[in-house]
Amino acid sequence: MNQSFLLFAAKCSVIFYFTACTGIDHLTLAKSASPVITKGAWKAELIEGNNAGTPSLLSVYKFVFGSNGDLKVSKNGMETKGNWSEDNMSKRITIDLGNTDPVLGMLNNHWNVEIIANDQVSLMNRNGLAAENLKMTSLN
To answer: How far is 95 from 106, CA to CA, in rounded Å?
Structure first.
């Protein structure tokens, strides 16, 4: 009985240590990008994969993600409106900016949330063997 209790206490201590003292929060499904990405304006800093030439094309756009699902993208005073949504269970953001701007049209997809930080949200889209990475960086 005494050994069983000590073993149980040791297991609980190890579990408590890992949950309290390590960065285990990135493994949970509950973390959401919405509270971060809806604060202010963002720029698309990087896209890789099949569209390797697009970082310079996207750098002139400013993205504002509304908490109601609206997405406004501006470039040189011109604004494009679209929609976005987040699925917390699958850790995925869906972007729909229509087809009027071919550069923005490349972002129309389901993006897996890879990293959530106060000033950065990194997304990934796998298309067959190629992977596209989209790094959103806060302008605030």
So the answer is: 10
Domain-embedded: residue 16:
no
Predicted TM-score of the model (pTM): 0.73
What is the model's pLDDT at position 128? Answer: 65
58-61-62-68 Cα dihedral, nearest 10 degrees: -80
Domains contained in the chain, number: 1
Q: What is the CATH number of the domain that holds 120?
A: 2.40.128.270
Domain that holds residue 52: 29-138
- Rounded CA separation 116/86 (Å): 13
d(CA 121, CA 113) in angstroms, rounded, equals 7
